[in-house]
Every structure is written in structure tokens, then in C-alpha cells.
Amino acid sequence: MMRIPVAAATAATFLWLLLPAAEAADSPAAPPQTSADTYRELDLFGEVFERVRSEYVETVTDEQLVEAAINGMLSALDPHSSYMNAKSFRDMQVQVQGEFGGLGIEVTMENGLVKVISPIDDTPAARAGLKPNDYIVEIDAEPVLGMTLNDAVEKMRGPVGSEIKLTIRRESRDPFQVTVKRAVVKIQSVKSQLEGDDIGYLRITSFNEQADSGVKNAIKQLQAKAGDKLAGIVLDLRNNPGGLLDQAVAVSNDFLSQGEIVSTRGRHSEDAQRYNAQAPGDLTKGLPMVVLINGGSASASEIVAGALQDQHRAVLLGTRSFGKGSVQTIIQLPGHGAMRLTTARYYTPSGRSIQAKGIEPDIIVEPAKIERLAVSENRHEADLPGALKNTDPNAGPPGHGKAPARSGDQGANPAPNVPPGTTPVSQPGATDVDASVMGTPEDYQLARAVDMLRGLALFGHHAAAQ
Q: Is the pLDDT of residue 424 over 60?
């Protein structure tokens, strides 16, 4: 696929992370309108425009009215379509290039409130503890209800180093306030490390312009470090809000030797496009793969996960993905800004639309926290009044000696590198892992993925020996 430089193009295609669009195509088709009908509607608009301009209680400029009308028209279509003035368009161009100022948070609007889709790794928002599915109800004590998404985003931007107070509503908690210091956000879109000496771990935080080159470099580094010991790859797409379509296709191509990656279908059948794997293909030479997904995996992340799942290239592990299956095209409006317009739906290789449904993992593993076991409250013989003393001179203090292995102890280790006396504690109702835990020894979902890959490697070794 040919990459389109955003700054030089009149239109560029994106898979932006926002809430699932309403399935407008499912509603009854409206009868075709004539030119006379259109002019009558425009006359109505002109009349309302003039009345507001002349009679509204306060003076408003023509620019304000026209911009608000365009915003209303586009936002009424679906949650993803919107108008960007010249400043917003410039900010968006900088963002997809991987460096911008702000909080480092992907948001959308739901029920009049700003909903957090995902904080971006190593940004002020992530460090402040914001989580997917949080709702921002106030910005610097000003209620969000009544703001447009663009208004709210604009208020969250500001000078680097300045602070902003956000009031957060989180499930099963009273509203609380967090203070976030704005910073220049530099997104390192790909991170990698070795788990032990045999499993490669790649985490893609967003599909910006550096995603594919980052994956290629990470794979080379992992292969150089592990050599022949490299037994499998974990691709972590959790809390990844998506990004550029061409990057999703290119990253999928890094793990596929052949076959379809994704197709897009718009309003007109002749606009349908299919994207297939191209040479050189799978850079890992067919190593076993596990892809981690969760409720913060959206858009471009779902394209990659869906392609690798449908092509039987990887096992998906985690929880159901976000479910954004629509494509937005950024159309420049010379002399003004740009419009973000939903122009197509995308489909996985098997023909699935994941719009508002998400991708179900092959193996459901809820997030869990690795914790040290609580000290037992049970009473022992030594606690009883008048209990006989142990007169054996070789006996240690009470409790000394090796205890039998229990679930969670080292003898029944629940995950690699989990300390003795610890156990995974599930988090009921949670579908999103804490960003600070991802890629660490406390990451239970990652531990399960590593266990699976090592098991596959062991099975393959035994099968080859036979």
C-alpha cells in the first residue's frame, strides 16, 4: 500500500479511536431528493442563520455560526465525523507524526461526557493513573456536559508544564480529582524486550507513522539477542487506540506471508478495497505468536488482531476488544481546516465486521493482580493456653521449615518470575490492565501468553524428536 504524506495530501485515511458508530446503513433508505428539495432546505438554513445573526441575545460572528453549523452537521452523522479548524488540523498532523503537546490521552464523547479510551504509555495521563473507561466530568472545575468533544480537547491542551485538574468518574468509585501536568508527548510506538531468553515481547502503543519501522527494528533486535533460542513472539495490543490504516496493514504484513489482511467497503461498491500480504512477508519465519488484546484495543489494533486471528497466524488472548469497525477519511478544506468523515467500514479476512461487537479472543484471560498471600488468621497449637512446649533442641521457631506447596506458592508457581508466596488475584468486572503493570513480572496476562508459547515450543520439540 502506498503511504500518503499527511501534510501534502488533500485526503488521508485514518482509523481513529472513537466510540462505535451507529449503523446508519441499517436504517430505511430515504427517498432521493430533487434539486428543488435541496434548495428549500438551504433556504431554511439561510433563514435560521439570518435570524440568529440579527436577533440572538449576544453578538456572534459569521465564522462562529458557520463553524458550529458544520460541526453539528457532521457530529449528527456518527461520533467519528467532525470538523477541524485550521489549528485543530495542524495539531492532528503533529499527533500522527508521533510528537505533540498535551496530556497523552485518547478520548471520545459519550452521553455528553468525555470518555477515556486509553491513556498513552509514558505520558502525563498514564502517570496520573487515568484508565480506559474513565469519564471526565469536569475540566478545571468546569462541567463537561454541554461541551463538544473539540471544546473539551482544546481545554485540556495548554502550555507545557502547566497543570490541569480533571474530575473523574470511575465505575464503583465516587468522583475524584486528579491533577495532571501538561508535557510534550513523545510517543515511542513500539517497545520490546526478551521474556527470559526465549520469548520476544513487542508492545505497540499506537499506530502512528513510526509503528511499522519500530516493529521491524524490534524484531531484528530480539533475533540478535536471542539467536536460535527465540521460541515465540508476544504482540501486545492492549490499550492501543489505533491510528493509521497503512500502518495497521504494514504491521500485519510483518507477520503474514500471504493472504488478505483487511478490506474496506464504502457507500459505493466500486470503492471497495482489499489489502493483501506482500513480500517479504513474515519476518519471524513462522514463530508461534500470541496477541494480547483488551477493551482498550481499537481500530487499527483490531485490524491487526483480526487479520492474525482469521489467518490462523496467532492465538488471541485477553478480553474482548473495543469494537470500532469504521474508517475515517481526513479531507482538507483549502484555506480553512479539514473534515473527518466516516467513509467506509472495514472487514477482517473472513468477512467479519467487528463494528460495535469487537473481537473475541481465542482464550479469555481477565486481568489479575499478582499479590502476596495474606497471612492466615487460623490459630495453631502453640497459641493454645497451656500447650506443651517443643523440647526438641533442633526445632526452629513456630512456622519454621518447608511448607507444602499450595496454589500460589513457589511449588505451584502461577506465572514466570512470580515471587514465592504470591498468587494472581482476579479483578471482578475489569477488562483493562493497569498500564504500569504491562510488560512487568506482575503482568498476569503476559505471563499466561509466555506460558503458552513455551508449551508450544516444548510440544514442537517433542513432536520433532518423535
A: no
What are the cell numbers at 147? 461541551
How many structural domains comprise the chain?
1
DSSP readout, 264-289? EEESSGGG-EEEE--TT--TTTT--E
* 182, part of any domain: yes
Q: Where are the beta strands (DSSP E) in 324-460?
A: 326-332, 338-347, 363-364, 368-372, 422-426
Catalytic residue among 212, 254, 310, 443: 310
* This prediction's pTM: 0.72
The answer to whether residue 297 is catalytic is: no
CA distance 230 to 200: 7
Q: Which CATH number fits the domain that encloses residue 107?
A: 2.30.42.10
Catalytic residue among 81, 82, 212, 324: 324
With bands split at pLDDT 50, 70 and 90, how would you rate the model's confidence at 122? confident
Q: What's the mean pLDDT in 274-300?
A: 95
Active site residue 409: no
Residue 310 in domain: no
181 is catalytic: no
Among residues 81, 118, 252, 299, the one annotated as catalytic is 299
